[in-house]
Each structure stands twice: as structure tokens, then as C-alpha cells.
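Postdoc handover notes: sequence design on the structure in folder B. Input C-alpha cells:
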């Protein structure tokens, strides 16, 4: 070989030159594919059909008694609403909870990481649809329920089995669905 001739790069070096472009194209194709898939907004809970965990919570306020698993084993379906006084979406769902209570639905609340005076202030300001309110100071029951945040509402049948989970605040359009799920839980 003379000094003016250049040697061809080794085959391995040619692969590394194209690797970033191939990876970028593959990522782009995957992203484009995912964008064409239908959106599934329903979170499939692992707790549906399973019993509530064993628990007993002290009262979160002076206006209502605390709550335990035994309260859900009386043969009557109920809503279990996980909420907090510091939760803005909990304020938004307050009128719908009141509507459900006025329809004859028993709603049991679990206040998450809350102080009694804050719970009392929230209830006096936005209404108190709850028959009982338990204080879950460490979110232990919330986590055992599979709840990822507040607010979250569960339909519990009269044997203490979780039949439906509603994630997020209850909107007016959700009330008929919750009433239907409660009727199915009878």
C-alpha cells in the first residue's frame, strides 16, 4: 500500500457509526405505535373481588365514630371514601358525596394523614356525608386497600368484599355508575 491510499474502516467501526441512527429510528417507531393505540383510562385494581384488610381506626373527628372492618360485614353495601382535608379534589367531590348520601347510600370515610381540627373544619365547610370517619395517620389502611392517592372510593358489599374502585374525585357523571355498582353489590 502506498502512502496516498486509505484503508477501508473495519466492519465493526461501520456498525457503530449507524447504531445511534438505528436506535433512534426504533425508538421513534415504538413511540409512533404507542400513540396509535387506544387510551385505557381505567386502572385495573388487584383488590376487586378481595376482602377488605383487617383494620380498626380511631375516630378522625368528634362528630363521627371511628371505623373497623366489622362495620362492613353487616349485610349492607357501602361506599368507602378515602379522603383528606388537604386534598383539593376532595372539595370538588363533596357535592356528589352529599347527593349519594341523600339517595340513601351509607358512606364511610377514612381521613388520610389528617388532624382532627382540620377534619372538623373541612366537614363544617363542605358538608359531612359520612356515617363514620376513621383516622389513617400513617396511610397503612390506604396502602392495604391498594389506594394510590386521595380521593378514592370503593364499593364494598355487605360481606366486606371490594366490588368496585373509583380513582379520583367523584363527578356528577360518576354518580349513576356508583349507584349501579352498589345495586350490583346487594
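Designed sequence:
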Amino acid at each position: 500500500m502506498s502512502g496516498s491510499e486509505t484503508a477501508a474502516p473495519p466492519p465493526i467501526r461501520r456498525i457503530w457509526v449507524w447504531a445511534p441512527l438505528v436506535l433512534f429510528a426504533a425508538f421513534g417507531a415504538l413511540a409512533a405505535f404507542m400513540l396509535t393505540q387506544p387510551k385505557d383510562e381505567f386502572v385495573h385494581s388487584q383488590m376487586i373481588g378481595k376482602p377488605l384488610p383487617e383494620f380498626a381506626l380511631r375516630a378522625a373527628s368528634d362528630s363521627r365514630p371511628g371505623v373497623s372492618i366489622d362495620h362492613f360485614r353487616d349485610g349492607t353495601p357501602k361506599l368507602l371514601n378515602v379522603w383528606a382535608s388537604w386534598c383539593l379534589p376532595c372539595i370538588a367531590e363533596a357535592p356528589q358525596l352529599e347527593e349519594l348520601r341523600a339517595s340513601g347510600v351509607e358512606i364511610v370515610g377514612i381521613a388520610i394523614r389528617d388532624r382532627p381540627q382540620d377534619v372538623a373544619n373541612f366537614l363544617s365547610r363542605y358538608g359531612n356525608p359520612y356515617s363514620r370517619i376513621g383516622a389513617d395517620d400513617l396511610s397503612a389502611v390506604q396502602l392495604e386497600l391498594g389506594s394510590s392517592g386521595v380521593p378514592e372510593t370503593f364499593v364494598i358489599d355487605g360481606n366486606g368484599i371490594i366490588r368496585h374502585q373509583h380513582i379520583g374525585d367523584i363527578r356528577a357523571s360518576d354518580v349513576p355508575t356508583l349507584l349501579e355498582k352498589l345495586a350490583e353489590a346487594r
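Context for whoever picks this up: Strands lie at 56-57, 67-68, 78-83, 107-112, 130-136, 152-156, 162-167. Don't rerun without checking with the PI first.
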